[in-house]
Amino acid sequence: MTDNNSQADTAVAIETLLTQRRSPYKFDPDRDVEEQDLRALFEAARWTMSSYNAQPWRYIVGVKSRSPSVWQQIYEVLVEGNQGWAEHAPVLALGLTKSIFEHNGKENKAAMHDLGAASANLTFEATARGISVHQMIGIEPDKAVQTFSLPQEIIPLTALAIGYEGENPKLATELAERDNRPRERIEVADFLISGHF
To answer: What does pTM read for this prediction?
Structure first.
């Protein structure tokens, strides 16, 4: 535990990767994410638990240096407020859910939860490799459906900016200042509604 901004000041000791994980706005625009590292991130997502083992998460991934047209398409699906900083991330991804169970054709009400879990696993693998992930809900879903010709059962939900945190003189001052603020969370007692330790 530490009192600097890069590591969480936890009430009790927890896994170090959790204390180091950050969602920065400052991405080093000149440092790429190697393909083998990127594959490992999505392999971590692959092994996430899910309702009925349906694995409803889907991702569309664009790497600025290797698949610039896909990267640009994802970028254009982001809301304007996210475009201002995400333009510096070398990798952008859309997080999608398959809303129907394959085994019975019924609605998968856990799909959003399971996408979140998969993205969390992806993020922890990234942290272990010194890579940062900033997840965001600020996308234009209808535009994503149109841009990528998504079928009705595939629902765009989130976006992820992936890269290496670093100083970026092109980043807006306000966003750079946000990255320097201390990390804060509500207390466990504030979200533990019933029961006690």
So the answer is: 0.91
